[in-house]
Write a structure and sequence with these properties.
The structure holds 2 protein chains of 2 kinds. Chain A is α+β, with helices and mostly antiparallel strands. Chain A has helices at 4-10, 16-46, 50-78, 83-100, 102-117, 159-162, 189-201, 237-255, 262-266, and strands at residues 125-128, 131-138, 142-146, 152-156, 165-167, 177-183, 213-219, 222-229. Chain A is 53% helix and 17% strand. The longest helix of chain A is centred in the first third of the chain and has 31 residues, at 16-46.
């Protein structure tokens, strides 16, 4: 059994040189992480397309690598790096942290899993618990997203265990946008479908190599059209939907199609 | 015989080929590496550090005046490419009922596809189909094309990019025209189309692809022959083209007896930078010819126009040429304006206001910004991407994942 003497024996006697080394390791790690978290997003904003995503996604991975390296270097300076010593010290640390900071540690572990499973990466558009926005950064404990209303939402990685996470572009450039149109039931549906397709095809925001779809649904109050297409840049999704809506409405008015007026239709006696 | 064997290997200067056989010229590896390094320097916020080698006799060398440039490097005449098109279309023209009633000639901007087809039509006395007006396009006017097209007379429509607008109401007319033309309802015809418009129309028109030809890229060999030919038509005595920093020959010396020294790779770089587009290469060449100051020349007499000091034209070194580039911070507005201009091969501002999701003020401001950068220019009422600016614009749009042509 481990007596207090045995436990203390696994720790090295820390000399002043060791303390200086540990200080330098911590300082170096902090510098590297600060540089990576500031410089890479700056560079990412200077390039476009998929390179932006690669650069943004590399930030948390780099941070994890730096922290792991710093921990290994520090631990080997504090204790004798034998298997037994490591097992004992990690076990004791795990027990203490498990009781005191259960959720915090759970978030940290989920953060590591996040890097491996990548349910979201910087640059992705995700929805968690009703909050929708672009992932700006992934820290060790939480992810920060910025909503379209420019509000920062901090989401602990802990949510990964038991919440549904909706990822709209999943690490890529392809983010499907939908513009809805609600029309009075009396119209030439084929012609409207064709016109809405051309509305998307002629949008300056359109990623033209991706498919354009028009879904038509007949409802009690009229006809519901869903125009689905992909913008060139996921960040332009709201401008794209606005553009589709404005030009779609203009084209439909030009065609002489009436828009659904729900009360008017629903008030017709059956 | 070795001579005839060599002659066979020399590619045609103007050579029309199926699109799949188009090969853009490649840049030297060293130049590509330098470009990558320059990209990373820009990424880290440091401008490109160009070394400025001393010019030989800098004080005496000056840009050639326009009147001499017009003699040494006149704008291409389209007779030669029109003759080359004859060669490519020989079999098709000989067929009484060709399988494909329509041939499409696709070319990148500034490659003269419209001028070539117009010249070709005049030589063969085929009627030229006038493009529809913007109002006709937006109303999908069924009186276009005119009724006389389709009565069996062959026709030429040199600028298909003028028959559509990227607008929900701007595609019906071109779809109808292409459907009728490919079905043979309009008889035999040749359609010219800008490569960017063609890339877009391939998404608009999903029918069978007709016979499609294009002018083979102007690589280094073709540029040497092209510029030599133009220069040889100048004056009585042949000119020599030397690079102004080290005196290396840019074009091989005209005199066969002269021992050729080390030649510059200027034209290889020019071919790669211009992506083999003749008009772009010509514009850059035109802008970088220099000569020693000769005060006896005033440009007023024909004789003066044909005289160059020491019969030597100095060419600015490639590393010293300042190419137009996108303004720093160029983003969505610039991309939209440039992309729309390329998709239509130039547009007046009134139409841009109808096509773009930008306010008139934003469009005008962006155009002025781009004009100051040398990327666009106003030709009468039509804004166009300049030949010198085209390579940078294409690269910018490609990097932003916009639809680009395949040339």
């Amino acid at each position: 059994m481990n007596s207090p003497d045995n436990v203390s024996a696994i720790f090295r006697t820390l000399s002043q040189a060791h303390l200086v080394q540990i200080g330098l390791i911590v300082l170096g790690a902090w510098l590297l992480i600060t540089l990576a978290t500031r410089l890479l997003p700056l560079l990412a904003n200077r390039v476009s397309g998929r390179f932006r995503f690669y650069l943004l996604a590399s930030v948390p991975v780099l941070r994890l690598l730096v922290i792991t390296s710093a921990l290994v270097l520090t631990v080997t300076r504090v204790i004798e790096p034998t298997i037994e010593n490591l097992m004992v010290s990690l076990g004791a640390m795990g027990l203490a942290l498990g009781f005191a900071f259960k959720d915090y540690v759970s978030s940290l572990i989920a953060g590591v899993v996040t890097l491996y499973e990548a349910p979201y990466r910087p640059g992705d558009w995700i929805e968690v618990n009703g909050a929708y926005g672009e992932v700006k950064s992934i820290d060790m404990r939480s992810a920060e997203i910025v909503t379209p209303d420019d509000t920062v939402v901090v989401i602990p990685h802990l949510k990964l265990w038991d919440q549904l996470i909706f990822n709209a572009n999943d690490g890529g450039q392809n983010l499907l946008c939908v513009a809805d149109f609600y029309l009075h039931p009396r119209h030439d549906a084929a012609q409207v479908k064709h016109t809405l397709h051309d509305v998307a095809l002629t949008s300056a925001f359109l990623q033209i190599d991706k498919p354009i779809n028009v879904i038509v649904l007949e409802k009690p109050w009229g006809t519901h059209y869903r125009l689905k297409a992909y913008p060139i840049d996921p960040r332009q999704q709201f401008h794209f939907i606005t553009d589709l809506t404005l030009r779609g409405k203009a084209a439909l008015i030009e065609m002489g199609v009436e828009f659904a007026a729900m009360p008017a239709v629903s008030q017709v006696p059956s | 015989m070795p001579t005839s064997a060599n002659e066979k290997e020399v590619p045609l200067l103007w050579d029309y080929v199926p699109i799949a056989e188009y090969h853009p010229p490649a840049a030297p590896v060293s130049h590509s590496v330098r470009k990558r390094l320059a990209f990373f320097r820009r990424l880290f916020g440091r401008g490109e550090k160009e070394q400025e080698p001393p010019l030989e006799g800098t004080e005496n060398i000056q840009a050639l005046p326009d009147w001499q440039l017009e003699c040494i490097a006149p704008a291409p005449e389209w007779q030669d490419p029109a003759e080359a098109l004859d060669v490519e279309l020989k079999d098709w023209l000989a067929q009484e009922n060709p399988v494909s009633p329509v041939v499409v000639m696709v070319g990148p901007p500034h490659n003269g596809h419209c001028e070539t087809l117009t010249t070709w039509a005049q030589r063969h006395e085929w009627p030229i189909l006038p493009p529809p007006t913007a109002a006709q396009i937006l109303a999908s006017d069924d009186t276009w094309p005119p009724e006389q097209i389709g009565d069996g007379t062959p026709w030429v429509f040199p600028c298909l990019e003028r028959a559509y607008l990227r607008h929900p109401a701007g595609l019906t007319l071109v779809r109808r025209f292409l459907a009728n033309a490919y079905a043979g309802n309009l008889g035999r015809g040749i359609i010219g189309c800008d490569s960017w418009a063609w890339a877009f129309l391939r998404h608009v028109w999903r029918g069978r692809v007709p016979v499609t030809v294009t002018l083979q890229a102007f690589d280094e060999t073709r540029l040497v022959r092209h510029f030599r030919k133009l220069a040889d038509e100048f004056g009585d005595r042949p000119l020599r083209f030397l690079q102004s920093d080290d005196g290396r020959d840019v074009l091989p010396p005209p005199d066969a007896e002269e021992t050729p020294g080390e030649t510059s790779n200027f034209l290889q770089l020019l071919a790669a930078h211009s992506r083999g587009v003749c008009g772009i290469a010509h514009a850059i060449w035109h802008a970088n010819l220099q000569s020693e100051l000769d005060e006896t020349l005033d440009g007023k007499s024909d004789d003066a126009a044909c005289r160059i000091a020491n019969q030597t034209v100095w060419v600015k070194p490639w590393s010293q040429i300042v190419h137009p580039c996108l303004p720093s911070g160029a983003r969505r507005e610039e991309a939209f304006v440039l992309h729309t201009l390329l998709l239509h091969n130039g547009l007046p501002i009134e139409l841009m206001e109808r096509l773009l999701p930008l306010s008139p003020g934003q469009i005008m401001g962006t155009l002025i910004h781009l004009e100051d950068s040398g990327l666009v220019a106003l030709d009468e009422t039509v804004w166009q991407v300049t030949p010198q600016g085209y390579p940078a614009v294409r690269h910018f749009l490609q990097a932003g994942d916009y639809l680009v042509d395949r040339f």
